[in-house]
Amino acid sequence: MNSMVVITLILSTSVVVSVVESVRHRADIDIPSRDHLPEWGRLILALNWPPTVCSGFGKDCLVSKVKNNWTIHGLWPNQGSSAKPVNCNNSWHFDPKAIKKLQKVMSKEWTNLSGTSTDIKFWKYEWMKHGTCAVQLASLNTQYKYFARALKLKSEIDVYGMLARADIRPSRTLFYPSASVRSAIQKGVGHNIGIYCTAGDNYTGRDGDEAGMREEGTSAKAFNVLEEVRICYDLSFNIVDCKKMFGSQCNFKYKIQIPPKP
C-alpha cells in the first residue's frame, strides 16, 4: 500500500470519527448514551388532580389557583417497587434563574397549592429529591432539560379528556367504578398506569350521594377520591406499562369520586 493510500485512509477515518462524535453530541440532547445508562430503568410522570390536593391542605389551600386541569406533581426516576432513587446529589443546588423561561408555563402546569409554600419551593423540592437523580440521563442532565421534559410529557397527556370520553366527569354527586376510571385512562395512554386516591372519609370537601352509596350496601364513607395518576416511560421517553408500582393505589372495592374545583 503506497503512502498516498495510507494518508487517504487515515483522513477518511478521522472524518468518520468526527461525524460520529458530532452526531453523538447532538443525540445526547434527546437520546441516552448507551455507554452511560443510569442505575434506574424508568421514569414516572405523576399528575395531580388539584381539587383533591387542595382538600388536603384545608384552609391553607390557595383556592384561586385550583383549576379543572391536571397538573404536574413530579417526574421521577424509578427502579421499580420502591421510591428510589432520591436525593442523589445534595450539592447540585436549585437555581430558579436556570428555568426562568419556563416559569410562566410552570406556574400553571406545575403549581403549588399550599398557602404555606410557593411554586419556587415546590420546584426546588422536586429538583433536589428527583431531578438530581434524573441528571444521570444525558437528556435530563440540566435543570432546564429536566423541567422542560416534564412539561413536554405532560402536554402530550390529556387525562381530563380521556375521562370525559368515557363520560367520567368531576362531580360531587357521582361515583364511578375504580376499574372504569383506570381503564379510561389506560385506553387513552395505551399502557397500564397507576391511580392513587384519598380515602373518602378523609376528604373534608365531600358532599356526595351518600344515600346512593348505602343502597349498594357500602358505607357512605367508604369511597375513593381520585388524587393522582402515574404514567411510566422508558429512558427514551416512550410510554411503557407501569409494573411494580410503589405507594398505595386506590382501593378497587370502592367507587371513585372526582371532585370539581371549589
Structure summarized in a few sentences:
It contains eight helices and seven strands; from the N terminus they run αβαβααααβαβαβββ. With 262 residues, it is α+β, with helices and mostly antiparallel strands.
Protein model, in words:
Belongs to the RNase T2 family. Pfam families: Ribonuclease_T2. One of its GO terms (biological process) is RNA catabolic process. One of its GO terms (cellular component) is extracellular region. The chain contains 8 helices and 7 strands; from the N terminus they run H-E-H-E-H-H-H-H-E-H-E-H-E-E-E. It is of the alpha+beta class and 262 residues long. The protein folds into 2 domains: 30 residues; 217 residues, Ribonuclease Rh, Chain A (Alpha-Beta Complex). Strands 1, 2, 3, 4, 5, 6 and 7 form a 7-stranded mixed sheet that branches. The longest helix has 25 residues.
List the helices and strands and how they pair.
Blueprint: H1 3-27, E1 42-48, H2 50-57, E2 71-78, H3 103-109, H4 119-134, H5 143-155, H6 159-165, E3 176-177, H7 178-189, E4 194-199, H8 210-215, E5 224-233, E6 239-240, E7 255-257
Parallel strand pairs: 5-7
Antiparallel strand pairs: 1-2, 1-5, 3-7, 4-5, 5-6
Helix pairs in contact: 6-7
Write a concise keyword list for the protein shown above.
2 domains, Ribonuclease Rh, Chain A, alpha+beta, disordered N terminus, 262 residues, 7 strands, seven-stranded mixed sheet, 36% helix
